[in-house]
Specification:
- The protein is mainly alpha-helical.
- Helices cover about 45% and strands about 5% of the residues.
- The longest helix is centred in the middle third of the chain and has 26 residues, at about 100-125.
């Protein structure tokens, strides 16, 4: 059995974009339709027009993204319908409200102090190379783990800022385009 990693079935005719590269792409305008479901946006001013809040224009999530990224059918993460996603989001709203964030501020401030004063200041002048992507991913992991588990791992305290934690997320993120194109790999 043979599978093509590039599905060209949606292309009835090659578009001009397939033949335009580099600086010539500006000839196509700020928004280019890649296929019936996807746009390429080259001008950030266009985002506010296309991506609006649900109260302005209810918009369903892109089915191709959900089916190729997650295998949690029926979960909040995999919900595509706007109204259903909105209902699933309701229980999470207290965590992202102004009061919810204000309650978290002391914990986040403590972690910032541990990262900046505790770790970065200790490394200053030592000649040690610090991978900032590792450091800030460790910081994010510490914030999230303090919200979710009783005994957090303190990733910021790892001598190399827990590169395994960074690699876990990085490998998932760089796999997204492939998984979106061939969702059957995870199903």
């Amino acid at each position: 059995m043979h599978y093509s990693l590039v599905d060209l079935g949606h292309m009835r005719q090659p578009s001009l974009q397939h033949f335009v590269t580099g600086n010539d792409s500006r000839l196509l305008g700020p928004i280019v339709r890649i296929n019936p479901e996807e746009l390429s946006i080259r001008d950030s001013k266009c985002y506010d027009e296309l991506y609006v809040a649900g109260s302005v224009r209810p918009t369903d999530r892109y089915e191709g993204f959900v089916s190729g990224v997650v295998d949690f059918e029926g979960s909040h993460l995999a919900t595509t319908a706007h109204e259903l996603h909105r209902k699933g989001r309701k229980p999470l709203e207290p965590y992202f409200s102004r009061n919810g964030i204000t309650r978290l501020e002391p914990m986040v401030a403590d972690l910032v102090k541990r990262l900046i004063v505790g770790r970065f200041d200790a490394l200053k002048g030592t000649g040690t190379v610090v991978r900032l992507d590792h450091a800030f991913t460790a910081f994010s992991g510490d914030v999230i783990s303090r919200l979710c588990i009783e005994d957090p791992p303190n990733l910021v305290d790892d001598p190399e800022f827990a590169p395994w934690w960074f690699n876990l997320f990085h490998s998932g993120i760089v796999s997204l385009p492939l998984l979106m194109g061939v969702p059957w790999l995870i199903q």
